[in-house]
Structures are given as C-alpha cells and as structure tokens.
Design a protein that fits this description.
The protein has 5 helices and 2 strands, in the order H-E-H-H-E-H-H. It is mainly alpha-helical and 173 residues long. The two termini are 26 Å apart.
Length: 173
Amino acid sequence: MYAFMMAATWPDEIKAMGSGYSGNDEPPRGEALSLNVGYSDKQLHKYWHFINTPFSQDGTALPPVEGPTAAQKIAVFRQALATGEPDLLKSYDLVWLLHLVGDVHQPLHSSTRITADKPHGDDGGNLVAVNGPAMELHAFWDDAVGLGDTKNYMVAVKVGQSLPGPDASLVGM
C-alpha cells in the first residue's frame, strides 16, 4: 500500500526545484495525445494534472478546453497498460494513471471558474485567495487531509478507511 501511495505522488514530487524536470501548465504546441516515452521524458506535464472544465455564474462566455487533459491521458495510460509494451514503460504509465485518477477526483482539478474579471478562469482555484497557510483555494483543498509526505501518509489511510464503501450499482462501463 505504501509503495502505491508513494508512486501515485511521484508526478507531483518531480515538480520540486532541482528535480531535473522542466515545463509549465501550458502544453507545447502539437504535443501528441499519445505521447508516452517513459522515464526518459523530463517534462513536468503539469497540464496533464487537470481538466479545467470552464463554468460561469455571471454569463461570461466559456473558452474551449484545451488538451491534452487529465481525462484524455487517463484513457491513453489505461490503453497502454493493456498492451505488450515493456514493463518499465508500463510502470511509468501506472504511476501517472494512479496520480491522474486521484487528481480528477479533486474538484479544483476538474473545473475553472470563468468571470468577467477572469475571462480565462481562476486556474482551478489557484487564483482564489484564502486566509491561512495555503494562501489559495486550490492548495487549501489539496492539503485538507494532510500533506503527501512520507511522515503523514497514515492520515490519508485513516481518512480513506472512514469513507463509506463504493456503491457498485453506480459503476458504468
């Protein structure tokens, strides 16, 4: 369990300064959705972590969703795991799949509020200030059950154990 939990956080860990990875929230022009070269890829792919589906409460026109998005990459990684690709590449696919499935369950990884003042969105709550150590809504939500470091992983385990079991009748295939 611990190994899977740590593997699932790797795509966030590589965003640390000095990790040897680079990139930003904007996908490079023309990146193929099927891009999948494994650990030799030194891009951060921050834009894979979210969908940012726009919504507006004040009638501001909604911009298109640009990709590749987390949902699109989940499909790519699921498909790749079912192929005969080498195990090392599959491990990369699995790490990203675990991470992205977790990310899209965080509402601020799946939406961006469009307003007259922010016609390009609030970056999934990153541009919404809050009081407290997080200083912005997205980080507040991300850290709500504790930071993802190795010392605090049992906090997440305990929260997970307290959740009700899934309702199998809601699963659609």
